[in-house]
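Known limitations

Files may contain more than one protein. Parsers should not assume a single record per file. Below, a two-record file is shown to illustrate correct handling: read the sequence, read the token line, then continue until end of file.
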Amino acid sequence: MTDTELTEKIKRLDETSDHAERHSLALELADNPDPRIFDVLVRLIQRPELENRRGTLLFCLEAHDCASITGLLEGIAKTGNFEAGMQAEIILDNQGLR
């Protein structure tokens, strides 16, 4: 994928209101280490209107270093729905953030 294509996909991920498209793009970009992807995923996870739709977004964070968002992940692990909470727990455990 070219940088132009990557930039366009990241922009679409950040802007789309379609949940299926957002999750599809997030999964497509999940293994890419580009820090812009991490930043967009974190912003999306924090959006209140996506509170019950962030399990896949959290899954996509696994390939990134999440040390900078340990507090966010701990909060989701404690108060998030089952899918999001479990995904946050997996990241915290696998990355040794506790």
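...continuing to the second record:
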Amino acid sequence: MSRITYFPHPVLATFLNNDYNSDCQFEIIHGERHENEERQIVIDNVFYELKSKSLKKLLDDKLAQVVCEVRCAATLFSDTFIINDAPKDIILKQNELRGTIEFDLKILLSENLKNFMFEDDTNETFYKNESFDLQKNDILAISNTKKFTFEPRNLPDAEIQAKEIFHCVPSSEIDEITYDIEKRGVFIYLPDKTNNNIYLEWQNLSSKPNLRNLLFNFPLVQRVLLRVLNEEINYSWTKAIKKDIDKHDLQKDNHKAIFKATQKIMNKKNKASFIRAAKEALNK
């Protein structure tokens, strides 16, 4: 059987379907993309899902490592970030990027290996009893590629494109609006049923953001402000809320001030750093 070869050894990648068994995969996973206070671009929690005994063993034995490569053709920017045993935030400078940015993961060999055999999950039709002399930094796997577009906006008065905190999520399992406050943010769950589609009503108000905020977000924003003031919650995203609390000099017993501050926060011409309007299904 003939095949097209890109590398002198097996590589796990979506465009190399014949190198590994069909149940093997290497995929990139990540959280949200946003800007930090220094106006750097942050890609949260970059990690991977790997299904390959051969490659997992190499990683466990520290004979290979996972790196994230970020590329921008418009600026010729390229950089790599090592992903160890836990998700990693990738931080990028605005002035190095423009247009389309791509990023993916690769598994690279950490040292030379002589007569190495991929014994567990490579395609036996091509690689049974085959051994390879591998060199340090040889590519062993390539993940799927993710893309986003970006135009530099590093101006003194530019509003930070903050990580979203309030999310609106449809649910066919509930009959009433519910919410959850957790490490990832504040989640508003709306019924999404044929005979009770509150989520559809929320969508239909997209052209009237102030009214939608008043109906769906206002009470929850107040509750979050109070819980932060009472030190009942403390997550990474509450830092932005504390800034608005300090800005409006809020005290936990002054409910009128909290009521007025909530209106100012939600009705800013530019969305406040911590209360961007809930987006459809986590903006996916």
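Parsers that stop after the first record will miss the second one. For reference, the second record is described as follows. DSSP finds six helices and 15 strands in the chain.
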